[in-house]
Design goal:
alpha+beta; about 575 residues; 7-stranded mixed beta sheet; globular; about 25% helix
Length: about 575
């Protein structure tokens, strides 16, 4: 249940010349042939590689039909013939995909692991013979991984057909895969196929000739890799917004539907992913051409521009901060849950860092609460027994006997370090600001409700009670997790408060309250901004202007250097700002 492209505003690339693109399979094939056609030359060999989720059979047929229509002699090899046997691959990845329904371990090995060296040697011999025969206009090797290291020297050109994770998931789902409540959650794709594909794509980018945005299956768009680099580097020099992803949920509310003008026939909208970098993309408009690029591709090419002085190794080359909305307005309570610390998440799931969170209350009904920490004197053993009974026998229990509640109002912020039992209550809109690791929500009690497909959501009691910090009870929570704003700096018509920072977090959060305008230095760090009060603010930097509307989120790359924030509309504007410490 995701809205189409028109629900997201594209980033305009306006500097420099019009980028030359080739659109449609026919034009792509003709472009490849014409690129080197000479009477005396041997046929050129082209790799057509691509992301997990590409329909290789369809693409091969389209290439064959295009060659036939244009009276071209094209020899095509299917690289899938070099893949290792299914049993061998299953043995390779089985320890990364254990018996847990949801969790596994991230597979960080190379794509080479999936292919037979003997088969690759045989294919290379066939290509050599075909080159020498000079019978074809073009020789194409097609398939996932075909441009891996052992094949790269065979090619005169490498073309990569790319997809966003969102589009890949959509295609897997169309083919019959089921992902549960959140469509970003399929296990094999998350732990194996996506990380392997992204690692391979990053390696290829150093020598890749041509890049294809294949997100529109009927009309792929090809451009030169050097043009791709020019586009992304321009974007990374100014504030930009990612394409949001919207998801329904069993507790979902109605606020996002109204504020974001989502289809009214949706039952609800539980999540709006504003910056969950691995899953997201950028819509980019270059004159009349619209491209959609995966965030991970963009970030790999622009890491220094976006991150500034941060060491690439510090977060494993990943973008470290996540922003998303949790909407329970006229919905229901979130599950009672807990997230693991870094050592647990590394040991059990091969992730790099923990999932520490903060809840910023953007809107709420009167007298609402957030579940946070344990009640004074509550027995952890009794809590676990009650949760197990609920899961095993469907017996409800009053979780408030065990879980502390914190009264909240609009513009409060709560800190939720790993190991803290928590969950938003009904009647709230929470901006969740956290580390990017997002998958490890250990549910303790989910109110005995099914997901939107009627299936009970997985509960993770064993994981949860291994990581709960039982000293985090009512008094400790009030003292340590409910911070008070600290005025840091101010000027005429504006003030900036530090509203949340703690040793369990590598980011800190500020709130800028502004009636006029204020300027900010990035000092080698990126900023993430969300407008939480007011109609709009205008961000001005290096001759560029960006209008940030209410509820929207923008990334200001470190390379921007500095920017000015100017209040729009009537009354005071409030902007939540997160940055690395």
């Amino acid at each position: 249940m995701k809205p189409p492209r028109e629900f997201a505003e594209a980033v305009n690339v306006s500097k420099g010349p019009h980028i030359v693109t080739v659109q449609g399979i026919d034009n792509i094939v003709l472009s490849l042939v014409e690129r080197w056609r000479t009477k005396s030359a041997r046929p050129k060999v082209v790799a057509v590689d691509g992301f997990a989720g590409i329909d290789w059979e369809r693409l091969r047929k389209e290439l064959e039909e295009s060659a036939r229509r244009n009276s071209l002699s094209v020899k095509i090899y299917d690289f899938d013939s070099c893949r290792r046997a299914d049993k061998s691959i299953d043995s390779l990845i089985e320890r990364y995909l254990d018996n847990d329904k949801v969790f596994g371990k991230v597979f960080r090995r190379s794509i080479d692991s999936f292919f037979s060296k003997e088969s690759i040697i045989s294919l290379r011999a066939h290509i050599t013979l075909d080159r020498e025969s000079k019978q074809d206009d073009l020789i194409i090797v097609i398939g996932w991984g075909c441009a891996l290291r052992d094949m790269r020297n065979e090619y005169d050109c490498v073309v990569y057909f790319d997809l966003t994770r969102e589009e890949a998931l959509k295609r897997f789902k169309k083919a019959g895969a089921t992902f549960g409540t959140q469509s970003i959650g399929p296990k094999r794709l998350y732990y194996v196929d996506f990380p392997v594909s992204e690692k391979h794509r990053n390696e290829l980018l150093e020598t890749l000739n041509l890049y294809v945005d294949a997100n529109c299956e009927d009309s792929p768009i090809m451009l030169a890799t050097e043009d791709l680099r020019r586009i992304v580097l321009e974007i990374a020099s100014k504030p930009f917004r990612l394409k949001p992803i919207y998801e329904p949920g069993p507790w979902g509310g109605q606020w996002l539907k109204k504020v974001r003008h989502l289809p009214q026939d949706w039952s609800n909208c539980a999540w709006s992913y504003e910056v969950i970098a691995p899953e997201m993309s950028l819509l980019i408009k270059n004159y009349e051409t619209m491209l959609e690029l995966p965030w991970k591709l963009f970030f790999h090419l622009t890491h220094e521009s976006v991150m500034g002085t941060s060491d690439r190794k510090l977060f494993g080359g990943e973008f470290p901060i996540r922003f998303d909305y949790l909407d329970t307005m006229d919905g229901g309570d979130l599950s009672i849950q807990v997230h693991p610390p870094t050592d647990y998440i590394r040991r059990n799931f091969n992730e790099r860092y923990h999932q520490g969170e903060m809840y910023y209350v953007v809107d709420c009904k009167p007298d609402k609460r957030v579940n946070l920490g344990l009640q004074e004197g509550a027995s952890l053993d009794e809590f676990k027994k009650a949760a197990e009974m609920a899961e095993r026998e469907g017996i409800p229990f009053d979780y408030t006997k065990f879980v502390n509640g914190v009264a909240v109002q609009k513009h409060d912020i709560l800190m939720i370090p790993p190991g803290t039992v928590h969950g938003s209550g009904e009647g709230l809109v929470v901006l969740e600001i956290s580390s990017t690791t997002y998958r490890y929500t250990f549910k303790i009690y989910d109110h005995l409700r099914p997901d939107l497909s009627g299936v009970m959501r997985p509960i993770h009691i064993d994981h949860a009670f291994r990581v709960i910090k039982q000293h985090r009870r009512s008094a400790w929570v009030e003292k340590n997790l409910v911070p008070k704003p600290i005025l840091k700096t101010c000027g005429k018509g504006w003030r900036e408060f530090l509203i949340a920072s703690g040793k369990s977090f590598f980011h800190q959060v500020f709130r800028v309250e502004i009636e006029t305008e204020a300027s900010f230095e990035l000092e080698g760090r990126f900023h993430i901004l969300t407008l939480v009060e007011g109609e709009s603010v205008k961000l001005i930097s290096n001759g560029n202007e960006f209008v940030l509307n209410y509820s929207e989120t923008v990334i200001v790359p470190a390379s921007t250097g500095c920017y000015t924030m100017r209040a729009g509309g009537k009354g005071k504007c409030m902007v939540v700002k997160a940055l690395l410490k």
